[in-house]
Amino acid sequence: MNEHSRSAGMPQSTQYSPYSYFPSANLLSNLKASVSSTWICTTLAVLATFLILEQTVYRVKKRHLPGSKWTIPIIGKFADSMSPTLEGYQKQWDSGSLTALSVFNIFIVMASSNDYARKILNSPTYTEPALVASGKQVLCEDNWVFLSGKAHVDYRRVLNTLFTRKALSLYLSLQDTLARQHFTEWLKTCKETGKALTFMKPARDLNMRTSLKVFCGSHIPDDAVQEITDKYWLITRALELVNFPLAIPGTKVYGAIQARKVAVKWLSNAARLSKIAMTEGSEPTCLLDRWVLELNNPELKGSKKQFTDRQMALVILSFLFASQDAMSSGIIYAFQHFADHPEVVEKVREEQHRVRGGDYSRPMTLEMIDDMPYLRACIRESLRLKPPVCMVPYKAIKPFPISPEYTVPVNSMVIPSLYPSMHDPEVYPEPEKFLPERWLDPNGLAWSNPKQFLVFGSGPHKCIGIDYTLMHMACVMGTAAVLMDWKHEVTPQSDKVHLFPKDGCLLEFTPRV
Ligand code: HEM
């Protein structure tokens, strides 16, 4: 008999066993019943306490704000957030300029009026942008987009120099070339298939390839551009409000992290090559080159002067992240609006003819765009009518007295809705109509109320790519209008918006010249 089996044979009374004190089988089963009923009672009591606490916390935070009196236990309005519709948001906005809700016990204050939206965006001592939970895993904790306060201002001062007029005119010729290449592809596909394109993917590909070439020029090879373009959707789909928290194989966050690693590898390499090229005295051809040259600019006093390849790669990643969905949405709706308003396209074509003198093979320049007020009005109006970003999540970093009557509790989400500002009939009469003319009179209502146009946000985190976006859209739409005709296959889903038309936007392209 070994040591182990001997000890197993010790008399019962000396062994620890909960049952050894209870000789009767009846008593034993009574005890089991009483233990399990105690467990049930305790569990129910804990659950009830939790539920009461949850409702109480919600009610205390909400105070008098409009919104459900009770929150759905644990998940709150999660189901609504999974399938957001414009109608759903509209109902929320109509119920008050400040309203409350809760999702997974995150308390959220939504602001729909222009004043409150602007106040949230312009109160950096009380609020800061809040990305979805997976944001840091996907974009990397050390990405500049997570900076706030002075560190953010200093970083941004350097990045602003990448979007000066001089820099933009360098990017424009690349944008022009790539847009034409994509038009040729779209025409070919429509000719071969004899039917409309689902425009969503071609538009996204145009934007991603253009961004990568504008940002990295020849420092990124074409196969890397293709690899990042193909994998980028893994990043987009992982940035949901709620995700499985662990990045294990098979989860969306894991897929996004793998896609980001590929992108950062190529972008870091591009930064390295750009530094070498600029040291060798090559001419700048892309945003990275401009950046490397700018760091030697004596006017950047007090700003950060050195950036590692990885830091530069993470900045480019943040630009891709911030621009891909918004720019794609902007372009898709611009094509849809143009197709649905042939009278507008006629005017765009007349203007193109005037400015380009009928020579459409000449690349677009900034001076040409300056001389195209009608095209610029169309782009502004398209962005106003279907703003690509309807709301921007912020977080209260301390109790935030947003109005004399209400203070947003610390750690709450506070979300300015941009859409209602752009559909205010006081500033934009007939707000649901596509009326570029409203932007032609510099003294008209639209231009006289610049604070109302929140397409790009406001305050210290206002979009850094505004001029770049407007230039890109003008280049694409102006040239598309003269080189192609396109028909929009309208479906019942065409006007169902969130970020993109729900039917993917069906467009059939044919050549004009
Ligand atoms: C139609 C196109 C675009 C729209 C509608 C758009 C809209 C926005 C909005 C609403 C914000 C948040 C502003 C705030 O919090 O006040 C933002 C931030 C930002 N956008 Fe854009 N954007 C577009 C294109 C771009 C492009 C092309 C780039 C890069 C080249 C870009 C880079 C950024 C960055 C880096 C931020 C964060 C800035 C910061 O935190 O300092 N965006 N954008």
Automatic annotation (TrEMBL):
- State the UniProt keywords alphabetically: Heme, Iron, Metal-binding, Monooxygenase, Oxidoreductase
| GO BP annotations, alphabetical order | sterol metabolic process
| Pfam family name, one | p450
- What is the superkingdom listed in this entry's lineage? Eukaryota
* Keyword Iron carried by entry: yes
The Swiss-Prot or TrEMBL record lists the needed cofactor(s) as: heme
Q: Name one GO molecular function term.
A: iron ion binding
Residues that hold heme according to the record: 463
Gene3D superfamilies to which the protein is assigned, alphabetical: Cytochrome P450
Q: What EC number(s) does the entry state?
A: 1.14.19.41
Which SUPFAM superfamilies does this entry report, sorted A to Z? Cytochrome P450
Work out whether the entry's keyword set contains Nucleotide-binding. Answer: no
Q: Which residues form a coiled coil?
A: none
Q: Which InterPro entries match?
A: Cyt_P450, Cyt_P450_CS, Cyt_P450_E_grp-IV, Cyt_P450_sf
Task: State the family it belongs to.
Answer: Belongs to the cytochrome P450 family.
Q: What is this protein called?
A: sterol 22-desaturase
* Organism of origin: Clathrus columnatus
